[in-house]
Amino acid sequence: MLLHLVPRWSARLFGASPGWRRYTRGASARLKGLGCPRGTSSRLACTAYSTVAGSPEVMLTPERYPVERLPFSTVSEEDLAAFECIIPGRVITDPEQVQTCNVDWLKTVRGSSTVLLRPQTSEEVSQILRHCYKRNLAVNPQGGNTGMVGGSVPVFDEVILSTALMNRVISFHDVSGILVCQAGCVLEELSRYVQERDFIMPLDLGAKGSCHIGGNVATNAGGLRFLRYGSLRGTVLGLEVVLADGTILNCLTSLRKDNTGYDLKQMFIGSEGTLGVITAVSIVCPPRPKAVNVAFLGRSAGCPGFTEVLQTFRTCKGMLGEILSAFEFMDAECMQLVGQHLHLTNPVRAVTSSTQEEPSLSGDQEERGSNSESPFYVLVETSGSSAGHDAEKLTSVLEQVLNSGLVTDGTMATDQRKVQMLWALRERITEALSRDGYVFKYDLSLPVERLYDLVTDLRTRLGPRAKHVVGYGHLGDGNLHLNVTAEAFSQELLGALEPYVYAWTAEQRGSVSAEHGLGFKKKNVLGYSKPPVAVKLMQQLKAMLDPKGILNPYKTLPAQA
Amino acid sequence: MLLHLVPRWSARLFGASPGWRRYTRGASARLKGLGCPRGTSSRLACTAYSTVAGSPEVMLTPERYPVERLPFSTVSEEDLAAFECIIPGRVITDPEQVQTCNVDWLKTVRGSSTVLLRPQTSEEVSQILRHCYKRNLAVNPQGGNTGMVGGSVPVFDEVILSTALMNRVISFHDVSGILVCQAGCVLEELSRYVQERDFIMPLDLGAKGSCHIGGNVATNAGGLRFLRYGSLRGTVLGLEVVLADGTILNCLTSLRKDNTGYDLKQMFIGSEGTLGVITAVSIVCPPRPKAVNVAFLGRSAGCPGFTEVLQTFRTCKGMLGEILSAFEFMDAECMQLVGQHLHLTNPVRAVTSSTQEEPSLSGDQEERGSNSESPFYVLVETSGSSAGHDAEKLTSVLEQVLNSGLVTDGTMATDQRKVQMLWALRERITEALSRDGYVFKYDLSLPVERLYDLVTDLRTRLGPRAKHVVGYGHLGDGNLHLNVTAEAFSQELLGALEPYVYAWTAEQRGSVSAEHGLGFKKKNVLGYSKPPVAVKLMQQLKAMLDPKGILNPYKTLPAQA
């Protein structure tokens, strides 16, 4: 497949169609490596932060947040000896190695654990937990350490139980697409594995290069394919979980339908390691789409903006139907940040007449559009089984949104490299933000109609106290990622943000954590989205499954009065 | 749209294509009433069985099955007065009216309740349960009473708590397709309601004319759209549940993503009324497909059979991709029974040259095919957003399966009435079976490769003791409905079937209840699909949520030692 620069398209060609159709046929797009690294996801690996983690710039969690250590035991020499018996050579106490796993990748929280355990089997996890349970030692289960809410690192001196060496594929069924693997398999590696067998993973996210499938399940990760393939609650068919006392719960079936008793695995999906340690996952993978198209669309400055984004979404949903696989949006400040910090080029703004291979697409405002910022950008992806049919459907949509003025500029890609270039703009926003300073992150579910109002509201509210207030996310799922950057962490700015953001969300009957979970940083805001009866029931469930509370303490649930 | 008889198609036209293509364009199939009554599902209504229920032919459950009444209180005059205070005029004690709700629609189990309560609101359900909890009265929550495993009727004298009057739509969002409604809404009525707004329900099943959405959720119903729209675990967004002690748990959110704490609603999905009474449901509905096509395919007798059915499935999955919405199979005995008891015509066998409007489709074996039985029949449905594209894809598939000899005969429908006629053949099998005598029903998940082996195995094993041994079901989900009919219930035949069928299934690591649940009749076979650790955990969950065990006792979980 030839490497093309991302082309820009002429509105007039759009209307007339033949040029367009010729292009889409030519790029019939049997993508060979759809899930290859996008962005710099591999940077997220825990070890990449060793220097950062070791530096004094990340405050110890209890120094920044009001939290008291619970009366767990502390790790003794005898404990270390016992661990060494269970997993010889895989008990890590070297301070520098342990330190990398004490700090979250956002560099916002830091624990003070002194021991990192790296089991390879469920049986080893079971023995470790049996010991910890008996000894009343707190345990922090850790996957790829890519969480956003401080859930994946210790708060105090919890034993870190890493799934990093539990990275074996157990089985793959090439007719049903059912994959069974250990919890520590890295999502991107699984992606590659199943793609070679003509399937894809039902989830995809920016952190794919580091995150573990067990962590994905434990946090009920949403991500970029949610719109099409739905929740892990539907695609995860079975789990193996080790309970707090070391009991192995084997629900690792590979059946699409199984109504024999209560579906216990659901309790562990999204429980953030507080109810059990997921050690293996059975998940159903969809067939690899034969054709993938990505369109990246924008509007010129001065246009009203978000209303048109919503109308574009409705148009896409109606006309693309079953082939719509993503509808992501980002605002102009996001685009500015990925340009500034990562040197990515805005494909619907730059004039590239000398390099482009295809004529440009832009609407009536082409003249001023070429030098102005779009207030919003939208990434639309289709995945389907017929390149021709899909291109035809997408062409109709693009004609429609362009002719009706919903969009003033756009570009489209069908080959793998261009698709990745466009996706990078969206996927690397998190990384660009983290380079901009300290980031206050909010991950909200809101009614789509009100999705962006909070961003503009906050810009006014915060004024110059914030460096940037940006909004982007999975519009198709009603999921806003609201991020505020500042030179450094500041209690004052935090006070201006919270509980304001949560109360605003609760007023819309939204969720204060759409897909990131509650972890350590959001555990006290659970009550904004769940009634007291529900919180009490969650606490009962926790007490039932982990009566000593040793699993990932200080996380997910608010401290009991 | 004109009414056509179901056409038969010529193999030669298939190969040549123009006739076919002309037809599919003509029938561009914007179905107006896709979910209108199929079959005679309305017959399933509880009240339709009043005469049957009153007759002595249905044995009392404790007379047929070994079960002891637990030490619950019995309903007193004071209890009735208390109920009358909560729901004036809706406390039913008329023996005939109560009796219809004591018997399951299969006429296999019968309870001896003397009181039927018909609340209209969650608050009323809450007050009723608060009273029953205090008084230690057992409660049988009942929806449409269409369950297959005796879960929906009392075993002894449990108070019947019907959701029949809780049938109000609370809200519908016409952009997101999110429906919020009370638990007693009948599935078919909801279907009609959302279709008028250009959406469909994400589930569909034969009992749609009677079953309640609350019952569907409580049993985690699978059904005919599972292959395309997945499990209720993904599509149900929120629930309101009344707990055993009367506490109202409101998790009735309408968010696609909400990772705030544990997902409590999952505990109640599939819990068969044993953990709480579902009183309202929030569910996301997919947009109504613009085009629906159904192909009904068969093979002439003497052809090897099931291997080709599997290959046909693989071909459909690969070539139809995202538009494949159902892949159902039935064997020749099923076809014989729907013909014999319901007078439905086999569309791929009958010669209808005088009435047909389109030439017939059949392969090389047309001559003998016209007078012979196909060993298997397959129903393939596509649902998509472009009639033209979908027809083109289906045509290619049909050409492929016909030319390669996987299929020897077939018919196709695009208009609503023909689609319904074809679906009736599959959907009314249950009804035909119930007219054939006493039915021993098994609903199994098995590896697709072995799916039919058990049927042929049983035919040999049972010999003339069984009237019919038939297999049909949701092949696309690996879900076999295995049914054995006999003149009457017989312990000897039961002994020949069980535990043989369960052991056979367990050996394949299958599920002994794919979608029907365990209810009363299968509760003791849970151990064939779940390990002791899981069963113990289920019992702990039950004890936590319903410490007195008043909710739907004798169901789902085996009696504790």
From TrEMBL, chains A, B:
Question: Polar residues composition bias: which ranges?
Answer: 351-363
- UniProt cofactor(s): FAD
The catalytic activity of this protein is classed by the Enzyme Commission as 1.1.99.39
The record's annotation in InterPro entries points to: FAD-bd_oxidored_4_C, FAD-bd_PCMH, FAD-bd_PCMH-like_sf, FAD-bd_PCMH_sub1, FAD-bd_PCMH_sub2, FAD-linked_Oxase-like_C, FAD-oxidored/transferase_4, Oxid_FAD_bind_N
> FAD-binding PCMH-type domain: from which residue to which, for each copy?
109-288
**Catalytic activity as recorded in UniProt:** (R)-malate + A = oxaloacetate + AH2
Where do the record's region annotations for Disordered lie? 350-373
Query: What are the entry keywords?
Result: FAD, Flavoprotein, Oxidoreductase
The reply on keyword Plastid is no
This protein's superkingdom?
Eukaryota
Q: Which family does it belong to?
A: Belongs to the FAD-binding oxidoreductase/transferase type 4 family.
- Purpose of the protein: Catalyzes the oxidation of D-2-hydroxyglutarate (D-2-HG) to alpha-ketoglutarate. Also catalyzes the oxidation of other D-2-hydroxyacids, such as D-malate (D-MAL) and D-lactate (D-LAC). Exhibits high activities towards D-2-HG and D-MAL but a very weak activity towards D-LAC.
Q: What is this protein called?
A: D-2-hydroxyglutarate dehydrogenase, mitochondrial
Species this protein is from? Apodemus speciosus (Large Japanese field mouse)
